[in-house]
Amino acid sequence: MDKLAIEFEEELRSKMIEAKKTCGYNPTRFNQMLARYGGVETARRLIANAQKRGNPAEGLSTLWANRRLDLSMEASVCNPKYAPLFSEAEIRYCREILEKMNQ
């Protein structure tokens, strides 16, 4: 795994800890996926699944309800620092869903 992918996964893990502290949200399935697939592949799978279903993951709704979309995986995907890890379509989806939820 390259350095940027490791940083991305570390950011996701840090956000999970913060979400548990500030929102009382413990994303068990997300944590299991991180352990199994790593951060980048987990993000790709969740994005693809959300696109297929036509709605965001349950965890994103929970973070939205707590006004903490900044702790979402989608927010991390939109960080320009991590752009090399994702396709333009994946980044665009995350940006659009966050914008929609912030309206």
Give a quick rundown of the structure:
Helix content is 72%, strand content 0%. By secondary structure, it is mainly alpha-helical. α2 packs across α3 (39-53).
Q: Could you spell the SSE succession in H and E letters?
A: HHHHHH
Structural class, please? Answer: mainly alpha
Average pLDDT over all residues: 93
Share of helical residues:
over 70%
Give a count of the beta strands, DSSP E runs of length 2 or more.
0
Helix count, DSSP H or I runs of 4 or more residues: 6
Based on CA atoms alone, the radius of gyration comes out at: 13 Å
Outline, from the CA principal axes?
A: globular
The quaternary state of the protein chains shown equals: single chain
N- and C-termini, Cα separation: 36 Å
Low-pLDDT residue spans: none
